[in-house]
């Protein structure tokens, strides 16, 4: 039998080292990683908002222009891929950008609260307006609810009424914005979107480490200009409809992308 040496200490038992996750996961777990994800996903979403508005401005050219534009989105890139495959791929990327943007924002908020001593109020460090930074959470919630209604209204037609025709964005938009409550909702939601975009476009440079005071004025002007362009462009649609500057054209026409020649019942429906 082995002899026990008096005063000897038992060997220390070291806990197993925690297995590290893959680098992208470890990076995202950090505050820096979450800020980068918020910035990159924000750039993706800002790009979509800009392209979406530019495409929708075809609404002012003619019914055929905006309807053909919608058809081109479903058919891109022509015969290189099956119909709607690329469009759904883009939608998938945008959905992931939304999910990561929201999750990163929520996680950063929780991390900041845990790191802040009880009763401590951090001084505002934003050069941009404090109102925009303080309301980011609520404008984000409003924008998210607005997107859900927007899809149900003008993409799926669930809230657009009996006038909705798939593939006819021109008349769908007019019939929707003819309802005063919907027009007001779009104006309010886009004002909230503008505030969110303003602060997001300003802060994404800081999240990416581009924070030289020499560029702050240019960053501020960019954020202001970008937000103003999006808000003015989007708000112009319900205002134009409510002011009767645009009216339905050939709503019963099939296919909707054909040249509009209102005759008979179609002309009556337009009135």
Keywords:
single chain, 271 residues, mainly alpha, 3 helical TM bundles of succinate and fumarate reductases, 63% helix, 0% strand, disordered C terminus
Explained architecture:
By secondary structure, the protein is an all-alpha fold. It has one domain: Up-down Bundle (3 helical TM bundles of succinate and fumarate reductases). Helices cover 63% and strands 0% of the residues. Helix 6 packs across helix 8. The C terminus is likely disordered.
Overall geometry: globular
- The SS-based structural class is mainly alpha
CATH architecture: Up-down Bundle
Question: Which parts are unreliable, with pLDDT below 50 for 5 consecutive residues or more?
Answer: 120-129, 265-271
Average pLDDT value?
83
Tell me the radius of gyration. 26 Å
- Number of separate strands: 0
The count of helical stretches stands at 10
Give a short overview.
This protein has 271 residues and is mostly helical. The protein has a single domain (31-114, 129-270), classed as Up-down Bundle (3 helical TM bundles of succinate and fumarate reductases), CATH 1.20.1300.10. The chain contains 10 helices and no strands.
List the topology elements.
Blueprint: H1 23-29, H2 31-56, H3 63-75, H4 85-115, H5 130-134, H6 136-155, H7 169-177, H8 180-207, H9 216-242, H10 265-270
Helix pairs in contact: 1-2, 2-4, 2-8, 6-8, 8-9
């Amino acid at each position: 039998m082995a002899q026990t040496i008096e005063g000897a200490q038992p060997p220390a038992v070291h806990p197993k080292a925690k297995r590290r996750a893959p680098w992208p996961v470890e990076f995202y777990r950090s505050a820096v990683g979450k800020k980068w994800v918020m910035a990159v996903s924000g750039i993706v979403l800002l790009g979509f908002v800009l392209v979406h508005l530019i495409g929708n401005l075809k609404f002012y050219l003619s019914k055929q222009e905006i309807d053909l534009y919608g058809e081109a989105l479903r058919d891109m890139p022509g015969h290189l891929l099956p119909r709607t495959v690329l469009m759904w791929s883009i939608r998938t990327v945008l959905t992931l950008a939304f999910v990561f943007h929201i999750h990163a924002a929520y996680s950063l908020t929780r991390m900041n609260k845990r790191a802040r001593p009880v009763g401590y109020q951090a001084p505002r460090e934003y050069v941009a307006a404090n109102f925009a930074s303080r309301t980011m959470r609520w404008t984000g919630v409003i924008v998210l609810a607005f997107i859900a209604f927007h899809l149900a209204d003008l993409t799926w037609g669930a809230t657009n009424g009996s006038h909705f025709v798939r593939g006819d964005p021109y008349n769908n938009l007019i019939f929707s914005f003819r309802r005063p409550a919907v027009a007001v909702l779009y104006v309010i939601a886009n004002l909230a979107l503008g505030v969110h975009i303003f602060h997001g476009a300003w802060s994404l440079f800081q999240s990416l480490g581009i924070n030289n005071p020499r560029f702050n004025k240019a960053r501020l002007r960019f954020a202001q200009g970008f937000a103003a362009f999006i808000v003015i462009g989007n708000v112009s649609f319900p205002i134009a409809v409510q002011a009767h500057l645009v009216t339905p054209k050939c709503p019963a026409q099939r296919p909707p992308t054909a040249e509009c020649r209102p005759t008979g019942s179609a002309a009556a429906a337009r009135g």
